[in-house]
Amino acid sequence: MRIFYRESLPGPVLPPTGQSILLLHGQAFSSETWQRPELPTIQTMSTLGHRVVAVDLPGYGQSEPLPKGKLHAGFLAKVIETLFGNDAKNVRTCMAICWREWDMPNFSL
Hints:
Blueprint: E1 5-8, E2 20-24, H1 41-47, E3 51-55, H2 75-84, E4 91-94, H3 98-103
Parallel strand pairs: 2-3, 2-4
Antiparallel strand pairs: 1-3
């Protein structure tokens, strides 16, 4: 099964934090949602020193749908294991609701 993802590494402005953020889109969206000019989440988070990965969930964007008979259970665990390996303990997941948390002053990860 082919899963499409977008990745941005920490930028040159701030030192890398050592943390990764996995962005998950909502229904009827795709990973492209996270890099739109009006909501540049991928760019903003990487500028703040994080590795940022946004995946197209199965059947959305450029990712293939899950094979017939396969369940979603374990899908995210496999994505995290594949993309982050031993650094999985430093991965934070985020759906659209998280943006407001990070938009507030004095946030911490």
